[in-house]
Amino acid sequence: MPKTLVCEDGSDTIFIRWWWSDVAIPINWAADFIAPMKRSIRPLFSILFLIVFAITLSCRILIRRGGRFSSIELQTNVIVQPPVPVFNSTLLKYAAIDIGEAQAKQEIEQLLEGNFASQGRYRTFATWRRFNHHDIRASSSRGVPVTLRSPQFYRYWLDFRKVLHDWARAKRYQPDIMNELIGLVKNPVDEHSGLVGSNRKYSSCAVVGNSGILLQKDYGELIDGHEIVIRLNNARTERFQQHVGSKTNISFVNSNILHLCARRQGCFCHPYGVNVPMVMYVCQPVHFLDYTICNLSHRAPLIVTDPRFDMLCARIVKYYSLKRFVEETEKSLDEWSSAHDGSMFHYSSGFQAVMLAVGICDKVSVFGFGKSTLAKHHYHTNQKGELKLHDYEAEYDFYHDLMKSSQVMPFISDFKFPPVVIYQ
Ligand SMILES: *[C@@H]1O[C@H](CO)[C@@H](O)[C@H](O)[C@H]1NC(C)=O
Ligand SMILES: *[C@@H]1O[C@H](CO)[C@@H](O)[C@H](O)[C@H]1NC(C)=O
Ligand SMILES: *[C@@H]1O[C@H](CO)[C@@H](O)[C@H](O)[C@H]1NC(C)=O
């Protein structure tokens, strides 16, 4: 008889899932099934059972060896499902509505037509260029001066349109996009650092936020001890190493940061060194101009987050924000929008960086997230308040659910969450 084995999750039952069917049979159940049978047929049945078991095992070993079938192996491994939390369907429905969608679409269309009227101070492409000092002597990676009406600038313009167009078209909801982050982000990052691309996740990642609470602890060494350190929005580490560490493997920014750097010669935007890859989410479509120009001169990859990943993040944060709103204020959901800047509402960079880490790491540690009345808003600046268009409280609610290692989150399916620890 197959013995009752101890599974990885510590339970004492192993389930056999026939690889050709959807029926899973726990081994101890199978034993119970065979035990009461007539003595005469018991050996026969046991042998038959063993043969089937052996075939199943060898098939699974085969599947495991043929790496490319690993997804099949995953499916056969489903063991015990924890109780599934039920999400409020009204909140899910509201969270899926993108209030700013129509406006964003219109803005993108205008940009594609070369109409910058809705871009505030960059009223025309020319003012954008002037603002960014690309008219006179900005240079591309090859040191070729880029002048007004130069063919090179025209190429930027065509590239910009193509990138923006593709990005806008790719935006949609995909519940299992978390599984693609390895291919979308980790592989290009590893390729750059000369590592052979594998589907292994990083063993441990530290996401370092910018909250002033970091100054209350000396987490520097602990942070640097992670395989990968992700930092946010170019917060500097000099003079703070004791608290924030010094190593950086991924610089995660929003496109405003790049927009500001784009004004500098060569888009200089590398507080952690020119070889540190950047991952950026685009908060205003016009920033694709900065991307198009800066992408040329970046030595390390400059990766724009996939719009499907952006959409997933947006929905999750909105769900948590709506939930918090109705629970705290007891107001109706329709009033959420005016309380939270409706169409401007956005997740924070920190939130998406944590989500990225969750997708590419086996273990995630989060530092420098959270507030304290004694701490500054940012450890490295004197910024007083926080932006209204973010709902940090709602994001903290989400992190707490992550820490409870709940395997089910709104809008995400077919994804296994790694353990997450938040250091306060
Ligand atoms: C879901 O949330 C809405 C809005 O807060 C509330 O009116 C409704 O009762 C909730 N539904 C359930 C099943 O809890
Ligand atoms: C992370 O960065 C450190 C310091 O720059 C570097 O030594 C290390 O190889 C990087 N790790 C990976 C996996 O790229
Ligand atoms: C950005 O630059 C990289 C490296 O030069 C290049 O492979 C990639 O295609 C560029 N991205 C876009 C959208 O042009």
UniProtKB/TrEMBL annotation:
**InterPro entries named in the record:** Glyco_trans_29, GT29-like_sf
- Compartments, record wording: Golgi apparatus membrane
Membrane topology recorded in Swiss-Prot or TrEMBL:
Single-pass type II membrane protein
What span is annotated as the signal peptide, if there is one?
A: none
Q: Could you tell me the superkingdom of the organism this chain comes from?
A: Eukaryota
- Span-the-membrane segments of this chain are 44-63
- Which molecular function GO terms apply here? sialyltransferase activity
Q: What GO cellular component term, any one, is given?
A: Golgi membrane
Chief localization class? Golgi
Pfam families hit by this protein? Glyco_transf_29 (PF00777)
Alphabetized, the UniProt keywords read: Glycoprotein, Glycosyltransferase, Golgi apparatus, Membrane, Signal-anchor, Transferase, Transmembrane, Transmembrane helix
The Swiss-Prot or TrEMBL record describes its family as follows: Belongs to the glycosyltransferase 29 family.
Q: Quote the protein name from its UniProt record.
A: Uncharacterized protein
* Taxonomy of the source species: Eukaryota, Viridiplantae, Streptophyta, Embryophyta, Tracheophyta
